[in-house]
Amino acid sequence: xxxxxxxxxxxxxxxxxxxxxxxxxxxxxxxxxxxxxxxxxxxxxxxxxxxxxxxxxxxxxxxxxxxxxxxxxxxxxxxxxxxxxxxxxxxxxxxxxxxxxxxxxxxxxxxxxxxxxxxxxxxxxxxxxxxxxxxxxxxxxxxxxxxxxxxxxxxxxxxxxxxxxxxxxxxxxxxxxxxxxxxxxxxxxxxxxxxxxxxxxxxxxxxxxxxxxxxxxxxxxxxxxxxxxxxxxxxxxxxxxxxxxxxxxxxxxxxxxxxxxxxxxxxxxxxxxxxxxxxxxxxxxxxxxxxxxxxxxxxxxxxxxxxxxxxxxxxxxxxxxxxxxxxxxxxxxxxxxxxxxxxxxxxxxxxxxxxxxxxxxxxxxxxxxxxxxxxxxxxxxxxxxxxxxxxxxxxxxxxxxxxxxxxxxxxxxx
Amino acid sequence: xxxxxxxxxxxxxxxxxxxxxxxxxxxxxxxxxxxxxxxxxxxxxxxxxxxxxxxxxxxxxxxxxxxxxxxxxxxxxxxxxxxxxxxxxxxxxxxxxxxxxxxxxxxxxxxxxxxxxxxxxxxxxxxxxxxxxxxxxxxxxxxxxxxxxxxxxxxxxxxxxxxxxxxxxxxxxxxxxxxxxxxxxxxxxxxxxxxxxxxxxxxxxxxxxxxxxxxxxxxxxxxxxxxxxxxxxxxxxxxxxxxxxxxxxxxxxxxxxxxxxxxxxxxxxxxxxxxxxxxxxxxxxxxxxxxxxxxxxxxxxxxxxxxxxxxxxxxxxxxxxxxxxxxxxxxxxxxxxxxxxxxxxxxxxxxxxxxxxxxxxxxxxxxxxxxxxxxxxxxxxxxxxxxxxxxxxxxxxxxxxxxxxxxxxxxxxxxxxxxxxxxxxxxxxxxxxxxxxxxxxxxxxxxxxxxxxxxxxxxxxxxxxxx
Amino acid sequence: xxxxxxxxxxxxxxxxxxxxxxxxxxxxxxxxxxxxxxxxxxxxxxxxxxxxxxxxxxxxxxxxxxxxxxxxxxxxxxxxxxxxxxxxxxxxxxxxxxxxxxxxxxxxxxxxxxxxxxxxxxxxxxxxxxxxxxxxxxxxxxxxxxxxxxxxxxxxxxxxxxxxxxxxxxxxxxxxxxxxxxxxxxxxxxxxxxxxxxxxxxxxxxxxxxxxxxxxxxxxxxxxxxxxxxxxxxxxxxxxxxxxxxxxxxxxxxxxxxxxxxxxxxxxxxxxxxxxxxxxxxxxxxxxxxxxxxxxxxxxxxxxxxxxxxxxxxxxxxxxxxxxxxxxxxxxxxxxxxxxxxxxxxxxxxxxxxxxxxxxxxxxxxxxxxxxxxxxxxxxxxxxxxxxxxxxxxxxxxxxxxxxxxxxxxxxxxxxxxxxxxxxxxxxxxxxxxxxxxxxxxxxxxxxxxxxx
Lengths: 414, 467, 453
Prior knowledge:
- Chain A is of the alpha+beta class.
- Chain A has helices at 13-19, 34-47, 99-108, 125-131, 138-141, 144-147, 176-180, 213-224, 251-263, 278-289, 308-322, 345-364, 388-401; strands at 10-12, 27-29, 51-54, 71-74, 81-85, 90-94, 111-112, 148-155, 160-164, 188-196, 198-199, 203-211, 232-236, 241-249, 271-277, 297-302, 325-329, 334-339, 368-373.
- Chain A has 13 helices and 19 strands.
- Chain A is globular and about 65 Å long.
- By secondary structure, chain B is an alpha+beta fold.
- In chain B, strands 15-12-14-13-17-18-16 form a 7-stranded antiparallel sheet, with helices on both faces. In chain B, strands 5-6-10-8-9 form a 5-stranded antiparallel sheet. In chain B, strands 1-2-4-3 form a 4-stranded mixed sheet.
- In chain B, a hairpin with a 4-residue loop joins strand 5 (97-101) and strand 6 (106-109).
- In chain B, helix 9 packs across helix 11.
- Chain B is globular and about 70 Å long.
- Chain C is of the alpha/beta class.
- Chain C has helices spanning 19-25, 28-31, 45-50, 57-69, 77-84, 102-116, 121-130, 133-148, 151-158, 165-175, 213-217, 219-231, 247-251, 255-272, 282-289, 291-294, 302-311, 315-321, 340-343, 351-357, 380-383, 385-401, 412-424, 434-445, and strands at residues 205-208, 235-237, 276-279, 312-314, 332-336, 362-366, 406-408, 430-432.
């Protein structure tokens, strides 16, 4: 991938497709700022063409909100730091800034953005906000949408809008920042975002335990119920299964928490390997956030944390059929399944039925099953049924920001 | 006065004792926590269940009258006032905790449950509800959802929207929608997050699911006394800059200190000081004393003349007393006061505080400041007497200048009180015509006929874009 | 424009309209302290149950302001009904950040309301009787007869509900004034006879308010008050010509009558020259501690009333101040409930518990929700049977949940209310004043000389 300084204003044909890692697109535009983007949108609107907003192109094919687009607009050239005053613990950057570059820059100031959504290793800041997904850190630091303070973007009518700001408390007007976070470019193409930062904890330590699946799950549940707030309580359901507990804070605080975790019921019966520390701990979790990157099949099952064992059962049925892997965020009751490119022949035929059955089981527990990624030919419904009223509000919102459908992503569940 | 048919429908829905139409009785509903705005509703109805709210909303909708939701009426922006008439739908009788689920650390509530009652009910399970607006002993969860309420401890824990995990909402057409839900991964637009803070303009929340947190193991509270207000602001900035994350940091300025010490709520703050800074850390016992010591020495470095650490719960409450009672105490030293709610970036605090003092001096007004310093959320209180028309005019000009100063510094006009009726016409300070249009559009997406809490938050379309 | 945050609850500088409004308007300084914050809502028993702003302290203050401004008439239903419906428990006062003197304002409002429209015949009859010694004496004698013969208890249990439920409740209240007999202690025989403390230290003199209901139905509490005070080193002095304290009249807005009784009491106690005025009924104590306010416009009495009020003490304050001296065991389980006029009006929370703490083997549990009114509120239980009944039933449940032998609360009205509720629920749990239990403990300890056989 070419860096922003050398990026042209547009790539076409094979070059476009290559830049997007093989995603079929005839053109990729690289506007340098919101006004330029607004012009592109205006022109597309006049010509009846559809644009797919993107950053690095990480989520272009996933998600099932998309419609075929005539061109991709990447924000990659908008990658400057607009405003950064470390003592404010807030930051405003162009949407096209690479997440990894931002993390490195914050590191130098002893700060971090405690968000670990899937895809961050390759994505841009705008991409992460537009996708709005969360990972393990959510329990301690909140979801992506809890940490976005302001958004600038261009609507399907080519208007440049700015909502929120760079202060941590702001109730002036409705919370459109939350609406736009996770809207996947269907309402506005994001050009800049303001985020809330945190001091990077002095100690970052991950405890690792292994054992049989039931013991590890019970151990995870026990740790999650401690008064100690862990930054992550994850379970990988391999053989053996692994319990991963991340603790952050000052050294004394983390040591005390580690003692509490080890003293929790069940964890004592698990086999503990050496904890990992500092940069190593961060690297471990960065690898884990990349767990589903580039994987064609991803399903997330979620229910109340107390139903974790059942949720794991549901997920494992899919994983068994697909020869896939399962990982769980214990504190949130979220279990993820991924599988490689080609499913086993028998599984491929029954995929629709398998997913529907699993979804029915999840919904029976007031839970949910989302097909986060699947090859389009599988034609799986991304999510379960949505109430007609919600559907109506969602499509009104889409029409409001993008009356002519210039922005390719559809309203969800339409 | 409401049409007979509507009166009948409301009575059928909720029973005669839940419907108030007597003009004299309605007088008590003409304002909320902010008495500057007074508009008598045509009726008040007090439903008990989601079904009753649905029936009530349908009936009012059919009559084409405004629907004005109201919780405890403690808001400070005139949000629960029937400015265009219509019917107030009060949630005071919807005060049951439906589910308290310790295993999943959540609770399901009717909107009329009082914020502090939830934490009390959760305490035996070792849990509590984090957002703590200063009115938490009386304000309701439904009101918190409407205003996206903050509070002193939001510095560390974040505001209401972080803790609201699910909602049942009645829209103006009487339909009920369920938004979010713990255990249901979001997919699609975050309508839940959008609804929180919508100030009753989108619908009425009739069930609220919130996340609870484990009660912190321990607490340390410090009080630092300063001779300069700006130094206190600087100390706040330095503490955050040093990587410390206190649960709360609150500043009480000299004017306020003297008001509090003159009242029966005297907290023992020195009256010749220009600022008192309350800093609170919470969390595990391990390491908390180090944090408190570091904060204390940072205060000393920025010029604190005295730093006290509360040794026990009694002393802790005493340190907080001056902060918590400040508002009531100020009510006694001036016949009227105007409370603002602007937020600025933390590092701008010293400069803005000085600027506010300058504006106050220029207009010959006393401005007393008591605020959430850690969040940069200012509450300048301008003291005055409304009977003096000339003074009143100066107050309004000073007030606008203070708001403009904050917005210029990268801040905003309201951090936690909401726009409501009070700051509606200041919205153009922070949003251009396109943004205001979009906000109107979003509102209409939920309430196409404009019946929900009309006259609030957004300036009328005709005035949009004009300052 | 941005609104201005007025600090006045419905009060502007508009002149009051009409003579009736002037009494409220005269209180404008007190009214204007309300900043309309609403902190009083969740502690108000009527607001908690009804959810109507007009039944909250903030709402009532707003209505008072509206009368003062002439926006509504004092005779309007809104003013009459909601001012009347207030229990007067004053739970709103300690939570008020602006220190609004709600109790005083309520009395003024009741006076205005009463002048604008006559109150109910029942209220009038009760207050009329209470204000006259020659009427209340025979009434209470009759009451004691009904109690002693068991007729009150019997009638309360067989009388039908419905039209007569008010009378039934009244009889149950009367039956509930029966003394509690604690079970004998198994180690009673071995009880150490404690020496009566000598006269070391300062022995201050105390005059006891005999009261009206207390005198009529709870003479034993007055006796216990005298005995326990003396054991704890006070010299009790009989005070002649004292009158009813006037609390019920002041609460009912009959301020002239209340002032007459206040003046009588000030004269009587001044004449006796006592250091303290001991009161064993929380409602009376609260009223007497506020004689200074009641008579603030009386040039002859204002200063004397203030100094009188400063000498008024609840009996538990006086006892707690001296320890009090521990007695012999009275093994029992006690459910303690705070009287509103002790806790909210006088700020007394721990002293009664200290009194009970001096009784060995008496286990004390403070009733859940003890900060909330029991619904007795003077004559409220009889004038508002429905709402008072609902509040009373909640209190009854909380008392029973404590699983005690006796419900203990230092106010006759509360004792009667709680006792009646328990009786009608069919519960055997009795009621008592803390000094009665301390008195029993002292009896058993032989502190009164020869032990009672």
